[in-house]
Amino acid sequence: MNRYYLQVYGCQMNQYDAGLVRALLDDAGYIETEVEDEADCCLVLTCAVRSHAENRALGRLGSLRAGARRKPGRVVAMLGCLSEPVRATLVEAHTADVILGPDEYRQLPAALAAARGASQESVATGSRNDRESYTGIRARFTGGVRGSVTVMRGCDNWCSYCIVPLTRGRERSRPPADIIDEARALTDNGVLDLTLLGQNVLAYRYEGTDFAGLLEGVAGIPGLKRLRFLTSHPKDLDERIIRTMADIPLVCPDLHLPFQSGSDRVLELMNRRYTRAEYLARVETARSLVPDLGLTTDVLVGFPGENDEDFLATLDLVRQLRFDAAYMFRYSVRPGTAAEKLGPKVSEAEAGTRLSRLIELQNRITRERNLELIGREFELLIEAPAPRGQAMLGRTRNNHTVVVDEETPVGTFANVRVTSLRGWTPVGQVLCETRGAPGESRSPCSCQPGPALGVNDVSCDPANRQGSCSCESCSCPSAIGSFKMEE
Q: What is the model's pLDDT at position 121?
């Protein structure tokens, strides 16, 4: 029996690619196992965007190779984004039996069969297809109420620090019909909240359809309740896309917009192709047209040539825009990128200090933003049990994660009032359940958006109270007790 074990590192694109790998191996007769020792083939799907992630994956590959020596015939494969020097080293040292990039997964079943049948040590590598978009292959869905569909692959931006164009190739978009078919299949399997993925999703274009047109098409799928997208490049965020977000109720007020640096000088060195003023203008337009917009970002510090003034400009932009959350990194040199040759280099110590200051600032802002949620009411989609205790985790339309202590089934839409923070996380009190989990029949609550609270909030009208509604504002006897603030 052919069993495989798959370890995945990196971004949501890699998580989606893992579904492609699973689908290809399923069709080839392989069975996935979560127990490494049971596997005939051990696969690592890696990320090369930052050296830390790549090094973690390489360390895991080494442990799997050591395990393979104790089980003759086991094949070890390295998949995904790899810098060319790392790929060459793996081939030379025979650290893996199979090495395939993100555009070579169709070759995986044949490569595994060849490696298992080889009479002597060899490394099976793939032939890159820069036009690959995996048309005709549907990523295997592993369940849940959230799902994702990759709408395009590759990137043409060539930011000077980024290895993605080297590892994933040029931009190419999937046909809208294929995307809509895959999204419809996910919805039929219980997905309520869908994310459209791409390295630069706003650059999507297939024949006459742009990204705004794609949003309109996907939003028409029956049964889909929420629609999101990432990642977005600021240079491609125009008013048409923003207005599409505002005009289509299904599209969530949720925008991830990396700014990377608050300094125009550094932005030019990064080849980001927008200025600080242009970024601020796009955010102002988005916040003015999309009420209650959830805004998150990426920030990079310690870039070659970044001085104290540049870094202070970054801190100033963070203070000015007050993001709900941010992914913050120190610069990591990537082989083959333009930034590899730039200088002067910022010392590791100084880059670490800058990152710590940035994280401290954003953490304070995130907590303050979360405190502002207390007393407000939101529609929450219950997604999963909390990691600890009996609580459940849910998500608002503008992408805040909220904990509720009431027993609420996954897939339920509930109107909640935020009552406190538990650590960093908002805690909500369930007011009423608006829709049941897939397949369940639940009494509806007629809670509707409250105009005084904004389009993403909800309030209950006592005159319309129905069924099992437990809203305090409806004066229900089953109203749930309050929480206190936890320091």
A: 67
Tell me how far apart the alpha carbons of residues 295 and 276 are, in angstroms, rounded to a whole number.
16
> What is the number of structural domains in the chain?
3
Burial of 386 (0-12, 13-18, 19+ CB in 10 A): middle
Closest alpha carbon to 218 in 173, 185, 256: 185
**Chain segment 442-481, per-residue pLDDT in tens:** 334 444 333 222 323 333 332 332 222 332 222 222 222 2
pLDDT at position 20 over 80:
yes
pTM: 0.86
Pair (254, 300) in one structural domain: yes
| Boundary of a domain, candidates 317, 341, 371 | 371
Distance, CA of 474 to CA of 362 (rounded, Å):
38
The alpha carbon of 258 is separated from its chain's Cα centroid by a whole number of angstroms, namely 13
Domain contains 135 = no
Report the distance separating Cα 202 and Cα 123, nearest Å. Answer: 38
Give the residue numbers spanning the domain of 227. 146-371
> Do 118 and 153 have their domain in common?
no
90 Cβ contact partners less than 8 Å away, ≥ 6 residues apart: 61, 78, 82, 96, 99, 123
Who has greater pLDDT, 65 or 394?
394
Rounded (5°) CA angle 291-366-430? 65
Long-range contacts of 311-316 (CB under 8 A, 24+ apart): 311/263, 311/354, 313/261, 313/262, 313/263, 313/276, 314/261, 314/262, 314/263, 314/358, 315/262, 315/357, 315/358, 315/361, 316/262
Rounded distance, CA 342 to CA 20, Å? 37
Q: Distance between CA 26 and CA 8 in Å, rounded? A: 17
Instruction: Specify whether 305 is located in the same domain as 423.
Output: no
